[in-house]
Amino acid sequence: MFLKCVRDNRFRKPGEPPADRGGAPSRPCGQERLHDLLLQEAEDGPLRTDLLAALRRGARIAIWITGPAKDLTRFHSRIDRMTEEAGPAVEALAAAETSITLACVEDTDRQYLVVLPPGGRARIARGTVAGSPAA
Q: Over the Cα atoms of the chain, what is R_g?
């Protein structure tokens, strides 16, 4: 069951009436766009499956940014908080010579780091949210 996005960047349940858009065209929200991108750019596996499910539930995208690889790695990657599949994400970050795209997604008790190198496959790492009982 894939939930539809509403204007406030949340998915809505099937059958829930759409928000009044005043005739404005519908546009996919961030969760929907990242979900579709990961279906194309990330290898199938348990982390991708869990992240896709979190996005369908409306997990918050804390940041989704493209910029200089060195700066994004240092200031936005949160790689030190990742406990699963951090190695491939670090390798993708290190291999990026100019720019890279990062997305940090926060679910109830987990956070995900998506590394999208130019011309490469997306890498996904997972960790616990700071302050959660598992942290």
A: 16
